[in-house]
Amino acid sequence: MERILRSKEMAEIILLPVRHHSPACAYHVDRTIEELRPDVILVEGPDNADSLIPVMVHDQTKAPFAIYYSYHDQSGRISEDKERYKCYYPFLDYSPELAAFRAGKRLGIRTAFIDLPYGDILAASREGKGLRKEEEEKSNYNDDYLLSRNDYLRQLCERTGLRSFDEFWEKYFELNGMRDESKRWFDNLLVYCGLARENTPRESMEEDGCLAREAHMAKRIGEHARELAGTGGTVLAVTGGFHTPGLRALLAGEEEAARTEGKTGKVPEKDQGVYLMPYSMEAADALNGYASGMPFPGFYQKIWERAAESDVPYGDAVLDMVVASGKETRRREGYLSTYDEICACAMAKGLAELRGKREPGAYELQDAVLSSFVKGEYNLASDTPMRILRGLMTGNAVGALCPQADVPPILHDFRGECRQFCLKITSTLESESTLSIFSNPRHRQQSMFFNRMLYLDTAFAKKVKGPNLQLKKDRNLMREIWKYKWNAQVDAALIEVSVYGATIEEAAVSLVKEELERELGAKESALLLTRVFEMGLQGQLQTVFSRVHQLMLADTDFYSMAEALKSLMMMEELETLYGSGLEFGELISIGCRKLIGLLPSMTRIKDEDLDPCMNAVKLLYRVTGRQGAEGRERDDYYDVLEKMTLDGEINAGLNGCVHGILYGSGRETAEKIEMVCRGYLSGTREQLFSTAQFFRGLFFTARDLVFIGEQFLRMLDGFYGAVSEEEFLELLPKLRMAFAYFTPREIDRIASMAAGIHGKGQRDILERQEVYPDWYAYGKELDAFVKSRMQR
Question: N or C of the chain: less Cβ packing under 10 Å?
């Protein structure tokens, strides 16, 4: 620990460096507070969150939980785009900061946060740095990455023979930590933090707001120390270890506080939000993207729980997890034995001794399970034990807040909506709701609410039956069946999106607007329109519709245009039911003309792209024939198809699809189709092999050709006779796909017609007189096997 001795102007200040979410840190923080009994405990964290401390230490509040910070830059202090920002400050039972607050409550000591509010940190950070990193999906308030990312620390890990900073930390600070005297432990950590800071460029500390935060924290610590001047009191500050050397220098007058350049002054308080929310072990795991945490929160939770009652908490936790993972592996795979578990425990202890550790830790546990439980090569087929262990080490606990916790307005709106629709949210049991969305206005409103919750990704409701506009299926269904379930994660998800609005509808509207500003294609914009359609966001329909119009004019991707056109056709068909008030005719015509213009460029597609291409060709046939379509569209469509058939290198499947449509339209005769087929059959070997793909495309659009007389079937029969058995087996997968378009009744009819060509009937095929030699050999071998088994 770092002591700054009292003077006439200030009380004594004690700085405790910590690593966030470290059980050893939490243990020593609690013990030091118990010994020193300071007059005030100050903790790194935005000082506009002080009102949350009573809720955090309430007996009914269960970790893990997080402080959720949001900032809507309406004044343009951060950027001209006036964006929305959010970040999280998670707390686990073994977080040193939470241990400090709980000790303060237990001993009756005043506690407070001392860091800059979230919006001010954003203003002090450069674009793309710190909490303004664009690549981070979830920004984390803590900054432990500064303790683990520089050349000095990498070399330290290499020279100690350890694979990562986390393994280094566990060996030197966690495994030995709880047996050390607190002052010595903090002194060792302070040396490490000082070396980490010395090897970090000052520019890096400036650009992510680190120095601005330290200046604010030093100021707040000084204010509390001056309040206690002359009383003989003590101020104890718990801060991230990287900040401690900087704070010491500022408080001792050895260094001047950093001045933020450009944006000065506090950001508007009204634009900031700060709330507590339930959190999960999985989200708090460093291996799941939480850069400031330690990995394996489930494992270290066991260490924290056993620290006070066991002399070997790590050894006990390793034993528990070996047994638990072995039991679950045995249940799933059935091959592990108790001896394998004994071997894993022995190996973990042996590895600990070999690596100079008092007890086996997380890394010995992983290595032991990998060596003892995984049989043979370690790959995706054999990694079940490691996946099970990984889940156990991560943990699945979800926190809960006491009833006194304040919540953002969006949660009140959610509960109000649930009351309005009589939805059950007082238990975590799954419930079902059946909605007649086109005949009952109240049901339509409830469907809109469910769709908005789905769009906000709250995991509250899921549609199990009913028209699905995104997947473009089940449009004939008139009812929706939803399943919904409330749990703490629903509240957490709503708090996360509270930055977008005070109500469910406002948040959905804001997210739609944000999505419109991204780079979208015609497909994505049309899909967004269907979602707005289902959510009933009438005020956004025209805006999104105009964006779809704009993107369809600009998009040149054939498949994107086809999917957009399919979505628009579907919405036009359902317009009378949903009543959006939009006119889709002109937009569909634009998409249709563009798609017809792009068709010739698709003649030489690869076989893997055949299905979406054929679907688009068939869609155009339906679009050009719809009521109200311009007659010229269909003529242009047929003209383009005829030109495509003249391309000698057209994909065989697409060629069959096009000829099928031309046949169905009366522009080609069955004789012309047969002539094209014979061209494949009498061509090169490569063309012969393309015949199966041609049939696939042809049957997709004109399978009735097979039933017109016997000529086509005789040609198919000739094709089968022209290939060898090996070639037939090679073509069989494509042939199966070609005949997959026929119904079972049609397949039976084709089989009867084919048998008739050879003068056979159904009875002749099913009742054979002769037995093939390979059948006989197989039967003889099977008979011998059964006989040998019976004699045992």
Answer: C
